[in-house]
Amino acid sequence: MSQVTQEMKAKAEVYYGNETCREKFMLLLQEKGLPSGLLTLQDIQECGYVKDTGFVWLRHKKKRDLYRFEDVVISYDTEITAYFRPNKIKNLTGVKAREFMIWVTLTEIYVEESPCAPSITFKTLVGLSRSFPVSLFEGQTVMFQEEVKELVEEAMDEEGK
Description:
The chain is of the alpha+beta class and about 160 residues long. The protein has helices spanning about 5-10, 20-30, 145-160, and strands spanning about 15, 45-50, 55-60, 65, 70-85, 90-100, 100-110, 120-125, 130-135, 145. Strands 1, 2, 3, 4, 5, 6, 7, 8, 9 and 10 form a 10-stranded antiparallel β-sheet that branches. The longest helix is centred in the C-terminal third of the chain and has 16 residues, at about 145-160. The protein is globular and about 40 Å long.
């Protein structure tokens, strides 16, 4: 069931289409001090932003699992919702991470500035968290499982020649 009510939608800036939604979402991430490579999706059908409350949603065609790191898989549901604050995403829904065969629901993401290097932290419902350098999320390095599989097969074919 959708968490986006008609009331919310009436108060929101709503956009349609993958290209427009990706552009608007990237601008919002930058405006809020979050890295542009965060929560990168394909085939976005609709996105919206309620400026007064910071409520954001993204809808895309189908649930997808994306690789982000060697040992972590990120899964996006068909609808993702959250409240955006400066350097923080709170009350996140529709995003899970799998590490060591265990799926956990992500609920909060925040960026912390430090003298050495800024870090980004991902929190779960049960309070577990994991931090990474922000630089890992500054580019669009996400690959879908199918793309990773193709790259592995190509590499294996090259070795076999």
